[in-house]
């Protein structure tokens, strides 16, 4: 049986100028960032993925089980996982399961979450940027990254 008989004809998206003008374009933006997080634990056999002190999740507006990106500044590794809640006030940043191969205690991380927004929401959106010291205590919170000078 031919592909077209089994699955139908292959169709392509119509050219952009012929699509329904009411369709909204979405843009993916940085929603939340924990910058300078220090890995406190790396648990290969733990069920969860990346445990983060509940106070830090709250400050950064990251939900439990939300998809996150981890950028390991120490070794250059990058991975996608999800956040789980660690004890409030503990300072815990624990990279668990298979991700534990990509981070060790003492590594410095940037943990980010992203959001898809409609074009009309872009102008008023501001991310939550939480900067941490070496003990995973909040040193400052911003909603914009300073312009990089030449």
Plain-language structure description:
The protein has helices at residues 3-7, 54-60; strands spanning 26-38, 41-43, 50-53, 67-72, 78-86, 93-96, 108-118, 128-132, 138-142. It is mostly beta strands and 150 residues long. It starts with a helix and ends in an 8-residue tail after the last strand. The chain has a domain at 38-120: Barwin-like endoglucanases (Beta Barrel). It has 2 helices and 9 strands.
Question: Main traits of this protein?
Answer:
single chain; 150 residues; mainly beta; Barwin-like endoglucanases; 2 helices; globular
Provide a concise account of the structure shown:
The chain is mostly beta strands and 150 residues long.
Write the layout of secondary structure elements.
Elements: H1 3-7, E1 26-38, E2 41-43, E3 50-53, H2 54-60, E4 67-72, E5 78-86, E6 93-96, E7 108-118, E8 128-132, E9 138-142
Parallel strand pairs: 1-8, 2-6, 3-5
Antiparallel strand pairs: 1-7, 3-6, 4-5, 4-7, 8-9
By DSSP (H or I, 4+ residues per run), the number of helices equals: 2
Would you report the number of β strands?
Answer: 9
Multimerization state: single chain
CATH first level of the domain at 38-120: Mainly Beta
Report the end-to-end length measured between terminal Cα atoms.
61 Å
Largest sheet: 9 strands, mixed
Q: Briefly note the CATH topology name of the domain at 38-120.
A: Barwin-like endoglucanases
State the shape.
globular
Strand order across the largest sheet? 2-6-3-5-4-7-1-8-9
Low-confidence stretches: none
Which percent range describes the beta-strand content? 35-45%
Sketch the topology as an H/E string, one letter per element: HEEEHEEEEEE
Average pLDDT works out at: 89
Report the helical percentage: under 10%
Q: Structural class from helices and strands?
A: mainly beta
Architecture (CATH level 2) name of the domain at 38-120: Beta Barrel
Radius of gyration: 20 Å
């Amino acid at each position: 049986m031919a592909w077209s008989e089994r699955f139908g004809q292959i169709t392509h998206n119509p050219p952009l100028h012929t699509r329904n003008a009411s369709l909204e374009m979405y843009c993916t933006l940085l929603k939340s960032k924990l910058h300078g997080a220090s890995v406190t634990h790396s648990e290969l056999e733990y069920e969860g993925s990346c445990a983060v002190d509940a106070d830090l999740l709250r400050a950064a507006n990251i939900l439990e089980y939300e998809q996150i990106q981890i950028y390991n500044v120490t070794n250059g590794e990058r991975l996608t996982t999800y956040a789980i809640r660690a004890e409030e006030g503990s300072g815990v940043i624990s990279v668990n399961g298979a991700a534990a191969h990509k981070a060790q205690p003492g590594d410095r991380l940037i943990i980010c979450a992203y959001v898809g927004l409609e074009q009309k929401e872009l102008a008023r959106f501001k991310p939550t940027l939480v900067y941490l010291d070496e003990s995973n205590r909040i040193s400052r919170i911003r909603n914009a990254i300073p312009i990089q000078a030449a």
